């Protein structure tokens, strides 16, 4: 989760944006969520080094605790040996009753500790070296119970109390139990007893100091949880979850202590745990609390770490992805765990490959059926489809995906009063943005997905309602690549009107939406006379042709405008004449010729696309403007540009794959309408260039529209036939200008 630094140097955590969307139910909550998202955008990141530095202070306390307990255990073992060998073995009959029983009890306790050290359960309960007291997240009323449950603490107090009393008596008074010394007693009796009680005093003091440091560590752990930004999290189903941070830090402290206990006071860096590694390990824990704590830590750091730290963390978490996926599908998993696992997968999903985790295809879409996971699930799907390989895998399950999306949209619509209208629109946008990515897949998988999308009346109805949304415009454009879909969409007048309004509206500030609408109209008019007529009739009030011609001046729109104008000229030539569009087309011709002379690449292809068909609508004017006898120099420059471009494109590229085809079509239309160009084409080596094109066939030239690098709409005439036609025309004798216009049939008509 993102964070911002506070005045006192702590890091304050902001609300995760997905959680904000899920938590908010509208009204004041919705406003709070928007405010939270604003905090996210204004937040700063932290680094893994910063986290390690903050944990280092806690590590010092853990070292001191471990050192004190090690010292206490060492002194206790020495005291056990001293009491056994020296006190009870050498001076048993000479000891006072108090010293005898105290020595015997301590021998029993220390002996039990030595011989049952491997039995963790017994050793922890009886002689746990205060660990049961320190590592639990307890409240005040539990402290006393925990104190009694661990015998080591009261024993340590008893050791200190009796040791002080006996040492005070033996060292501070002239009269004590051993003055005068018993008969035949060694002069070492009293020093031996003093040594024993000194050892007991040191052991008890070590344990008490360790306990005090453990208590200090408790406050430091709670402070550290706040310093790291582990703030309380509001749950969707009510209440606050505020113990996971403490659990996470407690787990780290426990593992750091165990590392020093098992590996020595100075273990290697590889033996010491990190907060992130422990969080990942906790995913396999049988404790729900530990799983939740680990998931929260990972989610928190994935949101807040800087780029370098995040890359390292992601590499570590990737190995735990199967566990996270299993959490989504497990019926025994709690809501907390399932939601947190989904949020972590969402942050990793743009790097995941479904082929490596096949169960994701079923489990992730299933999130759309559940609240509050649906929005997170939708976000996961959106990121997964950024990978083309994932797109293909998801699209294979098209029926299931479309069904889940439909169900989710229906749920949100039914709950519009609680979600709010703007939230419903946001859900529409996200859902259709995801569907758009699947709709642009090439090949059979993409075609099958688009077909199933088209056959779903529910989603088609929602497409109509959301046509002012760019992803929806794109979906319509991709659906229109199928001939049957073109007919169905073209027959829906509401869709056609909306597309026209979005494309031609002068006050449209959304250029991407306008471009998407233009692409949709262009695809709908591919080899479709009916759709061309529908657009021309709908465009009478918009001055369609005039606006298309004006768009040729704008490099942003030139390609989409040229494509639509080309299709209208090719498929509805007679209707353009009836609508008196000749005036606008005549004014466009000089502009198109200028574009051909000056542009390259995609824009040149767009200009050639118009030039290949515009002459058949205005043949007399075309012949008049291009007449070589009037401006021979310009005619030669035009032909030279065409031939040079043809020769320089020995192979078509995917960026402008139709450039050779439209070049050949321009050669044909120019020769047919202006036979005077035949000599010029011959002189400039057009036949050699055409032979080169014929000798270097390309599969790209079999198609006019591509998706993901794959052709989806085939050309009406093979490239080889088009080249042969151009060569025959160049070889024919010259004739009167314009005479061939009425005799030659446009290649676009021969389909």
Any overview of this molecule?
This protein is mostly helical and 751 residues long. Among the domains are: 1-44, no CATH class; 48-225, no CATH class; 632-749. The protein is 69% helix and 3% strand. It has 39 helices and six strands. A hairpin with a 5-residue loop joins β1 (3-5) and β2. α8 crosses α9, α12 (288-304) packs antiparallel against α13 (307-317) and α15 (335-348) packs parallel to α17. Mean pLDDT is 79; it is low at 1-43, 117-141, 234-240, 736-744 and 747-751.
State the gist of this model.
This protein is mainly α.
The structural class is mainly alpha
**Helix content bin:** 55-70%
Query: If strands are numbered along the chain, what order do they take across the biggest sheet?
Result: 1-2
Give the oligomer, counting copies of the same chain as homo and different chains as hetero.
Answer: single chain
DSSP strand tally: 6
Shape: elongated
Main β-sheet: number of strands, strand sense, barrel status? 2 strands, antiparallel
List descriptors.
single chain; 751 residues; two-stranded antiparallel ribbon; 39 helices; disordered N terminus; disordered C terminus
